[in-house]
DNA sequence: CAAAATATGTCAACATAACTGACATATTCG
DNA sequence: CGAATATGTCAGTTATGTTGACATATTTTG
């Protein structure tokens, strides 16, 4: 079927030239983001493994520490996962004494989430190597350069026009999020 | 003097203060990276779904396009997964006509991987929205600022000490292709 | 040349973390 | 009271990774 020296290459004929030569695609940044992020999460991942935890636990512990008292619904909205997905890791974190659940003072249906001292220590232990990595990457940059990085990262984030997202349902599509 | 009110708070008592106030941790960049990367991969993920593909397929298609003719072993080394994991997605991509396998010209045990036209089109379709997002985030930055972003991202990547891997060949130019 | 090493493929079982759907319970609201 | 809401839970599915064992073809080596 394949003929070396065929005159009319079909879509299944192999291409030998690398992609992105003379293309409009910014492959440099695409790949830098891939590798930077992969190495960025490798540090906490190594720590999590010693606890028997995974990325999902990191995300939950992180955001509960960043916003103590947030509700399950708010956490689901931030993580953009389903409550069934959250339930598993949250249960482990609560039973392990990392997170405390308190019935809402006004709406007692709510479960407000607070970190414990143990949970805070874990969040800090996970963030520390990440922050160190950032600091190292920043050593070559002055204050103005660092602000450029912040502006770039903010520009990479979806600017959700408030009003387009109908917050009627709690079970939404999930992505492959990661912290 | 450690605690007003309660006498001796155990590690399981809830904390109300947000983490990272007056801490040495750079939570701003940590979270910006999280959200930026999540949204960054959401674009290709939506496209992949229409093909019945996932992130693993994107990675394989990307690398094969960036370095046509790379071997299975080289791909495994880049992706840092097992051959059993790769086999599943690679089989789908080969059977779908996105990637072509050719026995190595010198070492016929090797299977050199090449993108087909179809595979190249897919790789471009996946990279295009990512590149567009980068371009948008760059609009607020001049050339010097963009170089700062590149320097930052490179600084975030693990600098593998080239001593563990002995590669005495003149090929491994710094900044090799990869997603 | 025969044996060992290498590159790849494959079968099977398992783990994690996401998903959907259905249903239970407690609480608040109209 | 009945409907809506916030949360929890059970059951099954999918995608992607893992380990271990073994097969096959090819190259290298003793």
Can you tell me about this structure?
The structure is a homodimer of 179-residue chains. By secondary structure, chain A is mainly alpha-helical. Chain A has a domain at 27-130: Winged helix-like DNA-binding domain superfamily/Winged helix DNA-binding domain (Arc Repressor Mutant, subunit A), CATH 1.10.10. The first copy, chain A, is built from 6 helices and 3 strands; from the N terminus they run ααβααββαα. In chain A, helix 1 runs antiparallel to helix 5 (117-138) and helix 2 packs across helix 4 (83-95). The model of chain A is unreliable at 1-7 and 163-178 (pLDDT under 50). Chain A binds a DNA duplex (30 and 30 nucleotides) through residues 54-56, 71-73, 81-85, 87-89, 91, 104, 107-111, 170-171, 173-176.
Descriptive keywords:
mainly alpha, DNA-binding, 179 residues, 3-stranded antiparallel beta sheet, homodimer, Arc Repressor Mutant, subunit A, 6 helices, disordered N terminus
Nutshell version of this structure?
The first copy, chain A, has 179 residues and is mainly alpha-helical. In chain A, 53% of the residues lie in helices and 7% in strands. Chain A has helices spanning 27-51, 55-66, 72-79, 83-95, 117-138, 143-156; strands at residues 70-71, 99-103, 111-115.
